[in-house]
Model the fold of this input.
Amino acid sequence: MRLLYCSRDYTTHDLRFVRAITGAGIELCYLRLESDGLPYVADPLPDGAHWVQWAGGGAPRAAPLAVAEYLPAFASVLAAIRPDVVHAGPVQTFGLMAALTRKVPTVLVSWGSDVLVDAQRDAWYLWASQTALRRCQAFFCDNPAVLEAAQYLAGDVLPPHLCLPWGPHALPGRSNPAARLALRRELGWDDCVVIISTRAWLAGYRVADLVDVFAAAAARRPRLRLALLSGGPETAEVEARIASHGIDRLVYRPGVVTEARVGELLEASDAYLSLVPSDGTSISLLEAMTHGLPAIVARNPGNAEWVSDGTTGYLVDGANEADWADRLISLTDDPSTASRLGEGARSVACHGADWSRNAALLVDLYRRTAAQRPADQQAR
Done:
């Protein structure tokens, strides 16, 4: 079977999709909508997957312009590759293009904000969302709140759908104490409390505000340290906040690292922090939880599905810096509670977010969707 994988860019999340698909013996052709210049992932495409050269893949464009400009080229790609099934997302770009061409059975994939936020931007985005949702042959999302919003937009005529968390593998949490200690010593942090953030430095993700929160907590608890992974367009603002607080030596900033290195840094950390206000199911959150890290995150439907306040971490309301800092300090001051929350987090994440199991269900959805194409039109 041949699958055309259509996504906005190339991220760690995409890589996990691609590995699951190629691991099932499916040939994968990767169509990239844009490249914003940010290295979201350090790992190359695996064997069994290859890039598709086409008119897109360059500088970002707003969804209406991208669809208008790239729709003919998208139709040409379908004619040339002749895939059995299309994996298309976000909803208003590749999802809409697949809906308008109507040539190949499509699994429409929501990335969360496309349904929860973008669909309400204006009349065009609403039309694009409804058209894509009503014309796809299957729908996949990672969170019940996203599914509920999609059903509403589709007018309760959503096609066969699957709602599963996607992304993290069920990794063993802190299975190598020696490696954990070695990495902390490498950083000079062997006797510190390490907070980690793995979210991209994007507008709206509040990474600069996270620095403020950490600085406020570290001023009261000098043992606190921050592993601030990734990077992005907010780099200048994030670095300015770090400089303004005088906490450069307290913040480790390795940039975008390999998936293996992310795992090592998670294992060396003590708690996970994210101020992102709106999420579906955050893969970064689930990764941290599988490593036994208590999570301090914003209270929203996506996070509340996984984080139970006082059981697997803490949910924080609003943007008050002091409330966030207080939660960091409470974990710093009470290691036994932090350990208990971390154990609860790992149990919940490993039970409900086993990607090896969930990926098999997604692959089955691809195969069932591809079967809707007439046999004489299937890829050869």
